[in-house]
Automatic annotation (TrEMBL):
Organism of provenance: Psychrobacillus lasiicapitis
Source domain of life: Bacteria
Stretches assigned to the ATP-grasp domain: 136-331
PANTHER family found in the cross-reference section: ATP-GRASP ENZYME FSQD (PTHR43585:SF2), FUMIPYRROLE BIOSYNTHESIS PROTEIN C (PTHR43585)
Key words of the record: ATP-binding, Ligase, Nucleotide-binding
PROSITE patterns, A to Z: ATP_GRASP
Single GO molecular function: ligase activity
The protein's name in its UniProt record: ATP-grasp domain-containing protein
Length: 427
């Protein structure tokens, strides 16, 4: 990895003056999605971009992170002492550290605490940490009507002891308190499935309590939220289409989500109460909620912007680069959230029906030729082993379409998605 110059020199009144490079430190990033896009936006904003990572391949694959000026490889990103030393070293090299940010679980509140240590612009560290723990957030919000019925399965509890208690709750959802994505969120419909779910989750999350929640029926929405100085500056409602095949996989996003005026006002009231209860004064998050018989119920909260193409979806619909405004809040600047347009956006994610080695993918150019298609992303490279979806990471392509109506946007994206063909060798 070739690092860029640590600082620049400027001639001013016959003197050379070292000017610190305004720098944003990012903790962790994927090769695709919101965390990657944040690196690019920071670079476009004129900042020196530093990526702290525990993945050696990020150093060896320069082209994947061309917008990053410097990569810091660490064995353990959660080693706070080493992180402080690395950032202090950057400052000694002439960097002016302006923010420390993460859009990756479980580093969001950790990055906020590092910012606090260096007396940078603060986001609400305690609130972000609370949202990282699914049990803690349920306990905090248990008296609000948005909270569904839930109970906690402790490591010392036995299946036999609790069979009768939980049998009356079927079907229900069981998940660990600290996880991301959908691979650890399991639907339990029978006592037999309960036993299997416990076995799997105890293997992956030993000695941890498990959260058991009632399974709610109703349309599901994702709500993007940005708070600045105790004021909700942005609330974006996105309707989700969810595929269930043993795991919950979101395969479609409609923006803006369709609700009536009364439902939207009720949602805003619910969100305001949640934000007040958890004490989020500065920062961003997204929540997943269901509309159940006219009442909003909270599925979960996440202390960051949603991943994947969420920023592009919102920008295509409103003209607002929400991720850029989120970075501004981390920099201590007031976000500017003025809608420049109002369009309907639909993002269709593609999965596959069988496991195999990817030989080739055809149809991207043809999909882009459909009127209204704004973006087509193909995720996997040739030679990768692809599988049927068991997590959100098994979504292998995305088509985003924009139109004047929701129906048109959906139709365009679905037709364009038909152009994309995966050629697999059985594996």
């Amino acid at each position: 990895m070739v690092f860029h110059t640590y600082f620049i020199e400027k001639k001013w009144i016959n003197e050379w003056v070292a000017i610190p490079m305004k720098t944003i430190v990012f903790i962790g990033s994927y090769k695709y999605g919101t965390s990657k896009e944040a690196l690019m936006i920071a670079k476009e904003m004129g900042y020196y971009v530093v990526l702290c990572t525990d993945k050696t391949k990020h150093i060896t694959s320069n082209s994947d992170f061309s917008e990053v000026d410097q990569i810091v490889l660490m064995e353990d990103l959660l080693d706070e002492q080493q992180m402080v030393e690395e950032i202090t070293s950057l400052m000694d090299q002439g960097k002016q550290i302006c923010a420390c940010v993460s859009l990756i679980d479980p580093y969001v509140s950790y990055a906020a605490s590092i910012s606090k240590y260096f007396e940078l612009a603060e986001t609400s560290t305690d609130s972000l940490r609370l949202m990282e723990d699914k049990i803690a957030i349920r306990e905090k919000l248990k008296n609000l009507p948005i909270t569904p019925f839930y109970t906690i399965f402790q490591p010392e509890d036995s299946l036999e002891k609790l069979e009768n208690e939980f049998k009356s709750l079927l079907p229900f959802i069981i998940k660990p308190p600290i996880s991301n994505g959908s691979k650890d969120v399991l639907l339990v419909e029978t006592i037999e499935k309960f036993a299997n779910a416990l076995k799997l989750l105890k293997k992956n999350h030993p000695n941890n309590p498990l959260l058991i929640e009632e399974f709610l029926q109703g349309p599901q929405y994702l709500i993007e939220i940005l708070v600045y100085n105790n004021d909700i500056k942005f609330l974006g409602l996105v309707e989700q289409e969810v595929l269930y095949n043993g795991r919950f996989i979101v395969t479609g996003y409609r923006f803006p989500g369709k609700v009536d005026i009364a439902e939207y006002r009720s949602l805003c009231t619910c969100i305001s109460k949640i934000i007040e209860e958890i004490g989020l004064e500065n920062g961003s998050c997204h929540m997943e909620m269901k509309l159940v018989s006219g009442e909003w119920k909270l599925i979960e909260t996440n202390p960051r912007m949603a991943g994947g193409e969420m920023n592009r979806i919102i920008e295509e619909g409103t003209g607002i680069n929400l991720l850029k405004e989120i970075l501004k809040v981390h920099l201590g600047e007031e976000p500017i959230l003025l809608e420049k347009k109002k369009k309907h956006v639909y993002a269709k994610y593609l999965t596959i029906g069988s496991r195999g080695k990817l030989l080739k993918i055809l149809g991207k150019e043809q999909a882009l030729m459909h009127e209204g298609v704004r973006h087509v992303h193909i995720k996997p490279l040739e030679g990768r082993i692809l599988t049927t979806p068991y997590s959100m990471g098994n979504r292998y392509a995305c088509v985003i379409a924009v139109s004047e109506t929701a129906e048109q946007a959906v139709g365009i994206a679905l037709e364009a998605a038909k152009e994309i063909k995966f050629y697999l060798e059985p594996f």
